[in-house]
Design goal:
It is built from three helices and 22 strands. The protein has 308 residues and is mostly beta strands. The protein has two domains: 249 residues, Immunoglobulins (Immunoglobulin-like); 44 residues, no CATH class. The strands form five sheets. Strands 1, 2, 3, 6, 7, 11, 13, 14, 16 and 17 form a ten-stranded mixed sheet that branches. A hairpin with a 2-residue loop joins strand 6 and strand 7.
């Protein structure tokens, strides 16, 4: 099960959504064209295993109801490089690149000052972001639910748990494995809002998802990331828009699980059919069998007609 990335932006979009939940509300009447800006370097793992070809990724996104375009100026040498962010729709503009090694990632996108030039319905805005720090020294091994688990009960609370694993020996004792944890759970068809969007302390070991948030017969993805860097709920663009700003280094692990279908009824009956009081002259008798419920994708449900 590969991580379920929505468009080009991945964890950044999710973290920004969490930021919107956790940030203090804006004053009534506030109207901002730009809503969040993010820069992320990350190592991506699938069921705890990094991609053997291109495990590292760089992402940059600008999102806002009034955004119509954006470019990113990166501090590459000998001269800065300008990338046009791709329009993903709904005011979301992003770019993403994958790399085979940390050195390749840092060569293409080194730490330093990045500048977003943002076209909005009211004109040009901009935001400069200083990307600092490095890869988290620890990552999360998700221990429950099991990767690709099926028949998970959607009628009881779901316990998600993980262990913090050291990439650099001593980071747990030294408190340097990461600045925090981002946890996100969403259905793979994205038929509803993410059911979990949480920023947690680095020493957190689990999270309980209420049964009310789960649906039967549904495939879900859990993404858990350790991160280092900046999360600013009250940043301001040069044009004065209040934004959520993320400039992070992350180590992301993703697993999938499927909830059990909810069988609501089973029926089996024989009947004699009449049309306006008259029996079918050829096959008046019928046998029917049915199964119904949420998440059922197939069953053997014969229906047969018989002569008198």
């Amino acid at each position: 099960m590969a991580p379920k990335f929505r468009g080009i932006c991945t964890i950044g979009t999710l973290m920004a959504a969490a930021a919107l939940v956790l940030a203090p509300p804006e004053q009534a009447g506030a109207q901002d064209n730009v809503e969040f800006v993010e820069l992320i370097k990350m190592l991506v793992r699938d069921d705890g295993v990094a991609d053997p070809v291109d495990p590292y990724e760089f992402e940059a996104c600008v999102v806002g109801s009034g955004v119509t375009g954006a470019t990113l100026t990166a501090p590459t040498m000998p001269t800065p490089r300008v990338d046009l962010l791709s329009d993903l729709g709904y005011g979301e503009f992003c770019t993403s690149s994958k790399f085979s090694s940390l050195s390749a990632l840092d060569t293409q996108f080194p730490n330093g000052l990045y500048t977003f030039t943002i076209t909005t319905i009211d004109g040009i805005d901009s935001k400069s972001v200083n990307l600092t720090g490095g890869e988290p020294e620890g990552y999360l091994e998700i221990t429950a639910p099991m990767a690709d688990a099926t028949l998970v009960d959607s009628e009881t609370d779901l316990s998600i748990s993980w262990t913090l694993t050291e990439k650099v020996l001593g980071c747990i004792a030294g408190g340097t494995c990461g600045d925090g944890i981002g946890l996100f759970v969403f259905d793979e068809l994205q038929t509803s809002d993410d059911i979990v969007e949480q920023l947690l302390a680095i020493d957190a070991t689990g999270y309980l998802v209420g049964a009310a948030a789960l649906q039967p017969g549904t495939q879900y993805t859990v993404e858990a990331v350790t991160y280092n860097g900046l999360i600013d709920f009250a940043a301001i663009t040069d044009g004065g828009d209040a934004i959520e700003l993320l400039a992070l280094w992350g180590d992301l692990n993703a697993i999938g699980f499927t909830t059990a279908a909810d069988i609501e009824f089973v029926e089996l009956f024989k009947l004699l059919n009449r049309d306006d009081g008259v029996e079918d002259p050829v096959n008046p008798y019928e046998l029917e069998a049915c199964v119904g419920g949420s998440g059922i994708t197939g069953s053997s449900t014969p229906s047969s007609r018989f002569a008198a």
